[in-house]
Design goal:
Number of strands: 14
Strand content: 15-25%
Largest sheet: 7 strands, parallel
Strand order of the largest sheet: 3-2-1-4-5-6-11
Distance between the termini: 43 Å
Shape: globular
Number of helices: 10
Radius of gyration: 19 Å
Number of domains: 2
Order of helices and strands: EHEEHEHEHEEHEEEHEEHEEHHH
Amino acid sequence: MHIFITGVAGFLGSNLANYYLSKNFKVSGNDNMVGGDILNVDERVNFYEIDCENYDELKKIFKGVDVVVHSAAYAHEGLSVFSPHLISKNIVSGSTSVFSAAIQNKVKRIVFCSSMARYGKIKIPFDENDKPIPVDPYGISKLSAEKILINLCEMHGVEYNIAVPHNIIGENQKYDDPYRNVASIMINLMLQNKSPIIYGDGEQKRSFSDVNDCLYCLDKMITDDKIKSEVINIGPSDENFITINSLYKMISNKLQFNREPIFYPDRPGEVKFANCSNEKAKNILKYSTKNTLDDTITRLIDYIKKRGPREFSYNYNLEIINHLTPETWKNKIF
């Protein structure tokens, strides 16, 4: 089977590529390298430095592909409130380009990696049967891309699945991005003897997913002929569901970092409590949490230490700067 992975130099894409290379699959992929790292790309991957919005080039490189996995995204939920054009263009236009090129090349299946942001501020745990009410441009864009995928695949007779992973962490994660990946940001700062920044009171809760616990679930959604036309949450539910304050304590204890975090005002529109039901994943994909958050954080620390701490890269321009824009971003405090 020939699998094509968008965002193959990024976190999820590179881990998924390595998973399939270990199974001797033919793996190709693209990345625009805005959020990717060439160090993440195994030399056995047929790699193309192409943006997902470049339909004409995607149409060429998708020839002979069986399954397209669309994992590329500017995955910036908080930033999307202040750079909505950048984020929505990347998610909606980029996804539509990928879907169109894949369908034109008669691929068998498209698997889209969506986001927990699709749900918004509804009761937890978020269930696939709940009506999504996204509260930011990123979540709105992801949900829009889902609807476009379903429409196109049903119209043109292409199989699809939609995976909803959430708060994935692990090796190959970008840790010099000031806008996302809270655990990696904290580790990168502490290794530079800088105090991490926590927004609000730090009592917001998230459920963190080890990337290795997501890969075999994605594998079933990619390769199992019996699993199709599904939207499935991937990740733990009540397991690894902790506050940002607790996350800070866990990391600081492991690094023996003794300085206190710095607290800044809440980020506008941030959901306070977010975790997903995984009952569907358990039933259909046989999901189980095999990695504790404690072990995952230890591996993440080792990975960042090995690569070396980095200065933060402000790769995206803020489109809206006003009294609501976080000072950390306006003044590049990280």
